[in-house]
Amino acid sequence: MQHFKTLSSYLEYLELPRPEHPMLSVFTAMGEGFLPCPKESSPPITNDCYSISFKKIVKGDLNYGRTKYDFTNGTLFFIAPRQVLQWEDNIVFEQKGFSINFHEDFLKGSELANQIKKYGFFSYSANEALHLSPKEEKQIESIVENIDIEYQNNQDEFSKEIIISQLSTLLKYANRFYERQFLNRKELSNDLLGRFNRQLEVYFDSGKLQENGIPSIEQIAEKLSVSQRYLSDTLKKETGKTSTEHLQLYLIDEAKNILLDPKKTISEVAYELGFEYPPYFSRLFKKKEGISPTEYREKYKMN
């Protein structure tokens, strides 16, 4: 797989104009003019750059990581360094919008260098792109215009600091808008929890639990066609519990049923639930229920 260490080599591969700055490129076409279009297709590639784009793709699929992005107008999407990118020749690029690309080293020494890693949307998948309202579009466009003005000017000792400040503001607004999107998608979030539990039911019923152990959150997320980060963020927002906590609760509920069989030892129950180490199962059960598996079994027998 081809990897591009510099922004210039990455843009050259895409057949896009050379950047004004060795670590930063800004393409805008929100009023007059058109965005330059990258090459028609590409096998899987990686690079060391961040990308923030708006209205770049209106038809076709861009493979990002393990997931296909299916973009429509009005969406803002984010790509992190070293994520695998691939697209086919049936893709159609929108001629309006903007695209900001910057090498991860561009942020070195700034507060944003650490902050940017906390923004989960850089790891989100296709159906998790940020859908902007017209008002939100204007707010984002205003910030991008300021970045573009500074980018096009003769750069001086203040330019980088100002651009990074504007990038930080853009990401803070994006974070706010994602929060709004989470709140406005309660029905979808509830459906996601239902689908999450159904995936666990299918996995348990298939007998894979004893064979392969407890499924990872990444495996479940892949089955649901969402990213691990988005799955946890959405469930946490709507239920107060992360995906890991929901998985643990599901296991505890299953354990309660199995513990009703007095012929099975606590270790056998743990192994049946996919736990490699029975003591870990006992600690988790007590943490969630306040009593040990043995105490739970005794308490049930008394009732």
Structural class: alpha+beta
Strand content: 15-25%
**What kind of sheet is the major sheet?**
5 strands, mixed
Secondary structure: helix percent: 40-55%
Overall body shape: elongated
Q: In the CATH hierarchy, what is the architecture of the largest domain at level 2?
A: Sandwich
On the 0 to 100 scale, the average pLDDT is 83
Rounded Rg: 24 Å
Distance between the termini: 62 Å
Oligomer: single chain
Runs with pLDDT <50, length 5+?
A: none
Write out the strand line-up for the largest beta sheet, numbering strands in chain order.
1-3-9-6-7
- Assign the CATH topology of the largest domain: Jelly Rolls
Protein name: AraC family transcriptional regulator
InterPro entries: Homeodomain-like_sf, HTH_AraC, Tscrpt_reg_AraC-type_HTH
Pfam family, one: HTH_18
Domain HTH araC/xylS-type: 198-299
List the helices and strands and how they pair.
Elements: E1 2-4, H1 7-14, E2 24-29, E3 42-47, E4 49-54, E5 57-59, E6 61-64, E7 67-70, E8 75-79, E9 85-87, E10 92-93, E11 97-103, H2 112-115, E12 130-131, H3 134-152, H4 159-183, H5 186-205, H6 208-212, H7 217-223, H8 228-239, H9 243-259, H10 266-272, H11 278-289, H12 293-302
Helix pairs in contact: 3-4, 5-8, 9-11, 10-11
Task: Describe what you observe in this structure.
The strands form 3 sheets. Strands 1-3-9-6-7 form a 5-stranded mixed beta sheet. Strands 2-11-4-8-12 form a 5-stranded antiparallel beta sheet. A two-stranded antiparallel ribbon has the order 5-10. It has 12 helices and 12 strands. The chain has 303 residues and is α+β, with helices and mostly antiparallel strands.
